[in-house]
Amino acid sequence: QKEVEQDPGPLSVPEGAIVSLNCTYSNSAFQYFMWYRQYSRKGPELLMYTYSSGNKEDGRFTAQVDKSSKYISLFIRDSQPSDSATYLCAMSSNDYKLSFGAGTTVTVRA
Amino acid sequence: DTGVSQNPRHKITKRGQNVTFRCDPISEHNRLYWYRQTLGQGPEFLTYFQNEAQLEKSRLLSDRFSAERPKGSFSTLEIQRTEQGDSAMYLCASSLALYEQYFGPGTRLTVT
Q1: Is A70 left (phi over 0), alpha (psi -120 to 50) or beta?
Q2: Mean of the per-residue pLDDT values of chain B
């Protein structure tokens, strides 16, 4: 079993819809949680990070962490075609090694 | 452009050849990381530098792999005697804060 599980999708939504992404993890030592966006053949781009359980909002993006359930989520409101990408969750128990999910491919249809 | 840069962007090599990749981190970042990503998977941690010191190496980094960061600035990743299984995207990241790692565009390696 992988440390971080993420449904690869693909996920296809109409423009303006809410995109819901999630990851589960098994390592209870994970303390830092990140979401990255990766366009095809590009490097991952840091979207959001959080340390504790709860919600964090940044513009159209909301990240949720539930440490008791070992479950994290990312919501994208008012989705746009430019949001079409692969979204990677990542987490860490220390200050250097990130453990990534496999990524969920999202397509927002105009 | 003040982001992480990597060169070359693409490398095609024959099995058994040596290859070297370069990463230039964001200038004030003292931490530098190498990851490897294969198709349909998330990046996997390879190694980590704080300044010029290599502090951690993954078991994925076999003896054929070596990484350096002379003077705590740019870093190089060398793969000796390449194998087809080495074909992947090699990503470099840098950070100043503990967990805000910023990635470069990657070097795509194809071993034929």
Answers
A1: left
A2: 94
Question: In Å, how far is A18's CA from the nearest CA of chain B?
Answer: 24
Lowest mean pLDDT among A90-94, A106-110, B72-76: A90-94
CA–CA gap between residue A105 and residue A84 (Å, rounded): 8
> Which residue out of A6, A39, A94, A98 would a mutagenesis test of the B interface target, given it has the greatest number of B Cβ atoms within 10 Å?
A98
Of A10, A98, A72, A32, the residue nearest B103 (C-alpha): A98
What are the DSSP calls for chain B, one per residue? --S-EEE-SEEEE-TT--EEEEEE--TT--EEEEEEE-TTS--EEEEEEETTEEEEE-TTS-TTEEEE-GGGS-EEEEESS--GGG-EEEEEEEESSSS--EE---EEEEE-
Question: Cβ distance A30 to A91 under 8 Å?
Answer: yes
Interface mutation target, options B101, B107, B108, chain A, most CBs of A under 10 Å: B101
Q: Look up residue B91 and give its two tokens.
A: 């990503």
Asked if A98 and B100 come within 8 Å (Cβ–Cβ), the reply is no
Whether residue A22 has pLDDT greater than 70: yes
Residue A84, pLDDT score:
97
| pLDDT, tens only, B20-29 | 999 999 998 9
Cα B107 → chain centroid: 8
CA–CA min distance A64, chain B (Å): 17
- Provide the residue type at B1 as one letter: D
Average pLDDT over residues B54-74: 91
